[in-house]
Amino acid sequence: MKEPAAAAKSAAAPKAAAAAVSIPTRVAPARPAAPSPKPAPPKAAPPKAVPPKPVPPKAAAPNPTPPVKRAEQKTAETSADERASALAFIGSLATEVSKGTVNLPCFPDVVMRIRKALAAPDVSLTEIVKIVGTEPRLSARLLQAANSAAFNPAGKHLTDLRAAITRLGHRPVQSAAMSFAVKQLRLAPSLQSISKPLNILWEQSISVAAICQAIAKRTRISPEEAFLTGLLHGIGRLYIMVRSVGKSDRLYQDPTFIDMIASWHAAIGKAVLENWGFDEHMCEALGDQDDYDRTGKNEADLTDILIIGVALARVLREPGPRTVDTDSINSFGRLHLTAQNCAEILRYAEHQLGSLHAALGC
What we know:
By secondary structure, the chain is mainly alpha-helical. It has 2 domains: 106-187, no CATH class; 191-362, Hypothetical protein af1432, CATH 1.10.3210. Helix content is 62%, strand content 0%. It contains 15 helices and no strands. It has helices spanning 2-22, 67-98, 109-119, 125-133, 136-146, 161-168, 170-187, 195-216, 223-231, 235-244, 255-276, 280-287, 302-316, 330-334, 339-360. The protein is globular, with a radius of gyration of 52 Å. The termini are far apart. Residues 1-30 have low confidence and may be disordered.
């Protein structure tokens, strides 16, 4: 009976199969699947050109001022302030002297006492000698002047103050006294800041005095009076200089201040001489010394002489060749002076300057 055997065979087959299934087969572990790459984002399209919106123009910022420029601006502002202050100062001086107040620091009082004594019609020689004798340096100056070539052509030496004053005369005594006073100003320690302009002014004053003296010899006017007027023609400048000390160290480097002095000095000088009691025609001459258009029916006077003296002194300072414009100043015509006459006057004055410096002790 084959069927049972076949059946048994058939039943054994699944067992074998089952046995085959139950035996585990070593299988390598499966690697995790790599993640699929993300798709790349689409490239953005380039932006379309959009015309810029109009922007209202902004005000340009000012360029910053360089430090040097700022310093220059500050200096200019300071200079303007100083010039305004200087103008106010000179104006106040003019008002002051016009009211009769003259304050000249370091000016020797003895010079004013001599001036007042000489102005008195009945003053005695003894009184003058007494006043001069109170200042030994002034006494020595007058003796020096009396023995100089300008006043002692014969060479007769004097040692007596009375004789010296007699030889000089009143006007030269005043000139020598003023020279002494100006020298004291130039040597004063408190005025050293203006010593240079004072020296220049005094040199110019001596030149003007010499020229005025030479011109006066062609007229009826006293040469001694013309000399003293020329010597004092710059007293207004001197007054402003002395009174301005300490106001500003830069004033005399400022051309504007120099111009201010040129505009005011004649009026201030006239007021100073009036206060000191000088003759009216001398005071008038100082006040009008820059009047180039001066006219008049009267004959030429001390004012005309001073106007020409100041003008020719400027020519004398020129290196040369010297030229004189006689047409621009009316006083040349009033004094009947030609260009040739002026050249002769300048030569004479230049020759006299050496002896005048010796006589005045400067």
